[in-house]
Amino acid sequence: MHLADPAHHFPTASGIIGQGIAHAAGAAYAAQVKKTGQVVYSFFGDGSSKQGAFHETLNLAAVWKLPVVFVLENNEYQAYTHFALEDANAMAGDPLSQKAKAYSIPGATVDGTDVLKVYEAAGKAVDRARAGDGPSLIESKFYRFSPHGNAITVPPVPTQFQEHESIEVYGRKPEFEAAKKNDPILKFRAVLIGKGTFTEADAKKIDDSVKAEMEEVVKFALASPMPAPEDALNYVWA
Description:
Elements: H1 19-34, E1 40-45, H2 52-64, E2 68-74, E3 77-78, E4 81-82, H3 88-91, E5 107-111, H4 115-130, E6 136-141, H5 165-168, H6 173-180, H7 184-194, H8 200-223
Parallel strand pairs: 1-2, 2-6, 5-6
Antiparallel strand pairs: 3-4
Helix pairs in contact: 1-2
């Protein structure tokens, strides 16, 4: 959760659930004041939409018409709890994008496993933001394939659940297996190959390249020494 890559316009993330939503509004305000024409994307989970920061930020962003697109990633499970058990909108059978109505901004729910539908929904929100009309909320519905809090370690360190919560908590293995068949990467790959954009060989080349890069990163991390305790306060603003 502590990620940043300013060189690629990814300023920061936060280890505090939902706080990145407020950070995004700050970045959008800076873009608005400086008239850079930039639009900020704020990505967060469905659980974060129950945090005060979500509601306070959407209200302020709407009042100031900030150029920000809020993307609520609904993967159906908030750590170990199914979202339908603790989200008022979901319990009423409504989409989570309905939360946008409270702040009089557009809210859209989109199939997050369909790249082109996500692209279309995001495009509309970006056009609105660039026109000076303010923020939008997009609920992207998809499915998390790994258990919450899983870790890459050698040897593996047990997490609370070795399998997805849908299996270990709710006994919904058919649900999990169906979700895996709806993998957005495999779906979009099939679309691109079907359109002749690239071939199976091209797809395999990308797969192999990404796997090799990830293996190198993991090896580097595991081989790196632990930081010294006195480094804990480095780069901390006060």
